[in-house]
Amino acid sequence: MPSVRAQRSGGEGAVDERERAFVEGLRREDPGEADRYVTLRDARNQAIDEVQKAQARYGAAGPELRGVFVQQLRDAQRRYAERSLALLDFLDARERRALSRYQEEIARINRVLEERARSRAELEKLLRGE
What we know:
The protein is mainly alpha-helical. The chain has one domain (13-128). The chain has 3 helices and no strands.
């Protein structure tokens, strides 16, 4: 039976600090979105625990009893996949919104640069006496 090699977002100090900073940034932007992220993250972490426990039971059962635990392991893996996908969907949607804002800002800056280029051309014509 294949195992899910899932890691929590915690564990190492640097990872924990990045996670805290990410959640704090979300909370400053939108407290509701931060709460949603934390809920999704915690659900995924709970699913990781469930997979690890199911893998331990499956591994400890021995070949003749593994059939008893295989469905529990598959169910835990499925819950892990569902919860991980929900977290990825959340992050993807957030990144798409940010990308849209960045594209709008780039377009605005490009318009400003174009206006300045036109003004520059007019001023250069004045300097040349045209």
